[in-house]
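Final report, results section. Input specification for complex C-07:
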Amino acid sequence: MAEKKINLTLNVWRQQAGQEGAFETYQAENIDTNASFLEMLDVVNENLTCAGKEPIAFEHDCREGICGSCGALVAGKTHGSHDRSTLCQLHMRSFEDGDELTIEPFRADAFPVIKDLIVDRSALDQIVSSGGYVSVKTGSAPEASTIPIEKNFADAAMDAAACIGCGACVAACPNGSAMLFTSAKVSQFALLPQGAPERASRVKEMVETMDRLGFGNCSNEYECAVACPKGIDVKHIARLNREFIASRTRKKK
Amino acid sequence: MVELNANIPEGPMAEKWTRHKFGVKLVNPSNKRKYKVLVVGTGLAGASAAATMAELGYQVESFTYSDTPRRAHSIAAQGGINAAKNYPNDGDSTHRLFYDTVKGGDYRSREANVHRLAEVSNQIIDHCVAQGIPFAREYGGNLANRSFGGAQVSRTFYARGQTGQQLLLGAYGALQKEISKGSVKMHTRCELIDVVTIDGRARGIITRNLVSGEIERHVGDAVVLATGGYGNVFYLSTNAMNCNASAAWRACKKGALFANPCFTQIHPTCIPVHGDYQSKLTLMSESLRNDGRIWVPKKKSDSRPASEIPEDERDYYLERKYPSFGNLVPRDLASRNAKEICDAGYGVGPTGDAVYLDFSEAIGRLGRDAIEARYGNLFEMYNRITDDNPYETPMMIYPAVHYTMGGLWVDYNLMTTVPGLYAIGEANFSDHGANRLGASALMQGLADGYFVLPNTVNNYLADLERDSVDVSHPAFVKAEQTASAKLDKLLAIKGTRTVDDFHRELGLLMWNECGMARSEAGLKKALEELPKLRDAFWSDVNVPGSGDDLNQALEKANRVADFLEFAEFMLRDALDRAESCGGHFRLESQTEEGEALRDDEAFAYVSAWEFKGVGEEPVLHKEPLVFEEVPLSQRSYK
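Structure output:
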């Protein structure tokens, strides 16, 4: 871990809910390259506070890349890199002294800005609400070993389940589509026997909710998969499409 | 006068829970919908409790300060979840899990609670598998297990290095299911700022809407705090940035006793501190100790790179001192040994506060692919943060604050000393004693939420007389006024130091005097320093912005103000407990060889502290601990 200090110029989007926003320029000085991107913002915020200004509002929590809270467009890239990394896991060694960076909130119709870099992603919860689970009541489960699952399927389900719900896929998509997010959940359960009873209704309801909440359609740009910090594959979108068609053709009792 | 009654059921240990479930009063299904339960926090304990109580028919309202329930810090748990399934056929059983947990907790937990935890552990796995959680599988399709520190059997179920994430998403899915049915009302970006009691019972909460700044009142028949631990009192910890002690502390100020506040867990395998801008510490799952070997150079202040230090000049100190457990000793021992060896001058890295965790032997034996399959995501995370490649050079690790075993005092029903106020998950104290074993936090959170509280809460609600209390009751008005006034006061100070600046100073004081090693002199000194720091905060903190919109500095200031009060409980508790136990080394209490010396005669009790006013000395109540099943003995992992 070599130690090095750099200076940056930041153009940061500042906005109050319901009002128009604008970029403001700040200097980030003497930043240790071992600091994370959010720690760099902490330093800028400490200076703003001491100068009697309001610090930049940005969402963050675990700072280890798993909670999905953080995210912003940095130099046009969701999470600041396309390196399978969340913004909190991006380190300042990725930048050069003198760099000028534009920092904006995730932009999508379904993600209204709350303040500065913070957007409202609750639409993603509503998609999950409409079927992104297995309906099993506490206490009613069979003994775990009675459900053997082929390792390949369990692994593939885990690949899909790794989604952290950060919304970068939506922000990266030119259509503001939530197909990668939705398909990851649909895929996880389509790959597992536990998901079978609700398989048809799940995909139907989740897709309908997604459409209703103002997310765009998928036109196979694949920007989502490039942006995803967890490497969720677009093949899950293909699986969602198959599941969706199958759900329409399935006979009703 | 507070009386501690743990309400432990009669009968043999293995039958207590079954008998108790039969003994508790029931609320008939059509009456359940008349009762409202407020659940604060949406981690494993909170989400599972809210979902399960809603399934049972109660009206449930759920609260989180995050934008969605799925962000709760349970999500960051990596390693796994224990259960006594004994699938590997290696001699595990409910009794062994119970035994290991009591022993691992250094005999400072309540036996009956721990036995119940071990009993329901298997149901948790059944339920989570049925939810479609993609646990690791063997090629034959069966569930895979791995071993973890403090156990000689493989009883840990896992989903790669993201077990907490997967279990939380399972509970979150269950919660979303109930939200969609209308049986849970969800309040996101909504933080508890006070607990409301009426006639000595918990009847509601006051919250702040973190977007609009609005202060809101919520009434209920029972209040459940699933609000996690207080590790962030140390400023640097592996906790998420927003984790705080405020809900538990506000409950404490309303009459709930706080148990064992000095019991904090220092996790042995974290990435060392590297700069003063640092905002948090990152944990590397303890599972790494299954294949990684911990060592330091035999020579003091050896500045050679690891690769240039020959095998016979390396000290694999855990293997040397504890041959039967080796690198898999419990967390407290691994942490304390790392600190001791670094304090003695053998540490590595730029600060000298680090030891090596070396995978070269395992890579040589199993191949790089096998190691990548087990720990790939952890190695990647390490590489991102430090820019070092652990496949080629050993990791550097150092202990960091990770979990807090102390918490609100609860009885067997998980109820605090305030009737109707429950604490579950990390927010209570009951199951881990002075040291938590790896993969037991997820187990306890889900045990409390899915299986324990939904049973025991009936007992309270069944006896409750219905009344017409609503949010216009004077107790709500007063609580709201007090909480608002505090926020206004914070905003009005307009001093010169930032909230983080104070938090950092508090953290350092606590780490130095109330961390892994403590002494009477140090604790007394800290008890003198703390009130000064608190006064400085209240006269010189700078909280920018207003209370009428989203204001993260105000949120943080309100939490740090509580840490500054709560820290005093930790110091007083540590001062009272003049024994070395769990991860806490009391300098005055050691053997001739310098090992930790527990003092069962004087300290086999739970310390439950009663709040008497800020800066006033709290009153200590003792719950004696009786060990019927696991005979008290000095732990040996040699």
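Chain A has a mean pLDDT of 96. Chain A is about 35% helix and 15% strand. This concludes the modelling results for the funded period.
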